[in-house]
Amino acid sequence: MSGKIEIRNLNKQFGEAIVLKDINIVMEAGKIYGLVGRNGCGKSLLMKHICGFVRPTSGEIAINGKVLKEGQDVPENVGLIIENPGFLPEYSGFRNLKMLGMINGKISDQKIRETIRLVGLDPFSKKRVGAYSLGMRQRLGIAQAIMEDPQILLLDEPMNGLDNEGVEEIRQLLLRLKEEGKLIIIASHTKEDIDLLCDVVYRMDKGKIVEMLE
Q1: How many CB atoms lie within 10 A of CB 122?
Q2: Which of 20, 121, 126, 165 is buried deepest, with most CB atoms within 10 A?
Q3: Are strands 152-156 and 78-81 parallel, antiparallel or unpaired?
């Protein structure tokens, strides 16, 4: 099944403050979409709506034709990295991903190790995640997002903490995933990431989409 996201007349208010206004977007498989704008413009909040963490005041979001409902878990076939990835610091990277994988029970140890290697980490390392650098934690977060082969990826500042080599490795990984037919959404402050990766870019300001670039 191909990934597809439809956002229809989405609005969000906190008290009197309107933080998302009249968002209408259709996103399809095999493309990378960029969300850009200043801090506080609504990028991360929109991503939290798409993955079901926050409910809209009005409007709706449909993923693969199914409208997100109140109290629903993260939709099926969605992988995400939003804010800082949360891992148990006393365990290794592999152990952390294995425990997360046990929730759905559909990923093998071999697949976890392959994914860890794919993001440039050693799957057999005993190093505690608490001793990881910021870049290593970010790589592990990306591994966690992609390890169950989701159709849709939501990545908020995916290059955060990576050195130049790491940035290039993850860019190439995302382009490969796009070629495999994934639908990828990236929120980033880095113009080069957006220019090199994205097929469509939405610029946000004060909770509204003010420009679409293809």
Answers
A1: 14
A2: 20
A3: parallel
Chain segment 10-34, per-residue pLDDT in tens: 999 999 999 999 999 999 999 999 9
Helices (H) and strands (E) in the chain, counts: 6, 10
Looking at the structure, tell me whether residues 49 and 23 fall in a common domain.
yes
Place of tokens 């670039």: 213
In the DSSP assignment, the letter for residue 92 is B
- What amino acid is encoded at 90 in this protein? E
Residues 181 and 92 in one domain: no
Its domain, for residue 126, covers: 87-149
Question: Which residue stretches of the chain have pLDDT < 70?
Answer: 1, 71-73, 84-85
Give the Å distances, CA to CA, from 56 to 9, 17, 23.
Answer: 10, 13, 11
Q: 14, 18, 20, 105: which is closest to 61 by C-alpha?
A: 20
